[in-house]
Design a protein that fits this description.
CATH superfamily: Aldolase class I
Strand order of the largest sheet: 1-2-3-4-5-6-7-8
Oligomer: single chain
CATH class: Alpha Beta
Bound molecules: phosphoenolpyruvate
Helix content: 40-55%
Distance between the termini: 13 Å
Structural class: alpha/beta
CATH topology: TIM Barrel
Strand content: 5-15%
Shape: globular
Order of helices and strands: EHEHEEHHEHHHEHHEHEH
CATH architecture: Alpha-Beta Barrel
Number of strands: 8
Number of domains: 1
Number of helices: 11
Radius of gyration: 17 Å
């Protein structure tokens, strides 16, 4: 049974002075044991959030990691530096592809560093609007996956608990969502690609999240799709009321899956 995951991407918001309070408030509102919950604050807030979440079953994730192990990379953060601070890491977010010219090759390197250091990756993929309108969405995402996964043993990625987040770029921070059925079709396409690359039993083992303007009001559209295993949430993840609603809805999906598995 694939896990249900809700990951919060705080992006470049919060400071070390206020992130702990927000994380503590959030944790108190999202106690839903059937759902894997992850908060990804900025690097400089990781320690504050880790401390605030001590005793809570909520994981901490970083928003990026460098593709090299160490060296002359001013301002960057290696996977080894995250030890004790984070157990998950977002890799290949479209804002990093756009603002930091991250290529699929670099993203593949980042995955390697994550695996070497025991970090659980959330690999982001997603098409631009003109790709979707031009009927190329699945081909673009297929290419991103092949690029990111190239040079990796699918079994190692599966054992590391890799999660894919399908995030159509035109839906991120825009208030515009993909249709649940389209996101579901993409989740299936992602597993088909992974299967072709040798992913062990992708249909059963590869979690795929949806991301793109998810809120408490619209998350059900995605979580009622059996192919979708949760959400990567940006803007709404800074609002405890929104996260409480999103995680509560995810809890319904997790319970329904448990019951189906048990019957
Ligand atoms: C994201 O940052 O991954 C994201 C999906 O953002 P938003 O929810 O704000 O669209």
């Amino acid at each position: 049974m694939r896990p249900v995951v809700i990951a919060a991407n705080w992006k470049m918001n919060t400071t070390p002075a206020d992130a702990g309070d927000l994380a503590r408030t959030m944790a108190g509102r999202i106690r839903e044991p059937g759902v894997e919950r992850v908060i990804c604050p900025p690097f400089v807030c990781l320690a504050a959030v880790r401390d605030a979440l001590s005793g809570e079953d909520v994981a901490v994730g970083a928003q990026d990691v460098h593709h090299e192990a160490a060296g002359a990379y001013t301002g960057d953060t290696s996977a080894a530096m995250l030890a004790g601070l984070a157990t998950w890491v977002i890799i290949g977010h479209s804002e990093r592809r756009r603002d930091h010219a991250e290529t699929d090759e670099r993203i593949s390197g980042k995955l390697r560093r994550a695996l070497e250091n025991g970090l659980r990756p959330i690999l982001c993929v997603g098409e631009q609007l003109d790709d979707r309108e031009g009927g190329r969405a699945e081909a673009v995402v297929d290419g991103q996956l092949r690029g990111a996964l190239s040079g990796h043993e699918p079994v190692a990625l599966a054992n590391a608990g890799l999660v894919v987040a399908y995030e159509p770029v035109w839906a991120i921070g825009t208030g515009r969502n993909a249709a649940g059925a389209d996101a579901s079709a993409m989740a299936e396409a992602i597993r088909t690609t992974a299967d072709g690359l040798g992913w062990p039993d992708a249909a059963e083992t590869l979690p795929v999240l949806y991301g793109g303007s998810v809120t408490a009001a619209n998350v059900a559209e995605f979580l009622t799709e059996p192919a979708i295993d949760g959400a990567l949430v940006g803007g709404a993840s800074l609002k405890p009321d929104e996260m409480a609603g999103i995680v509560a809805r995810a809890g319904l999906t997790a319970n329904a899956r448990r019951q189906t598995a048990a019957s």
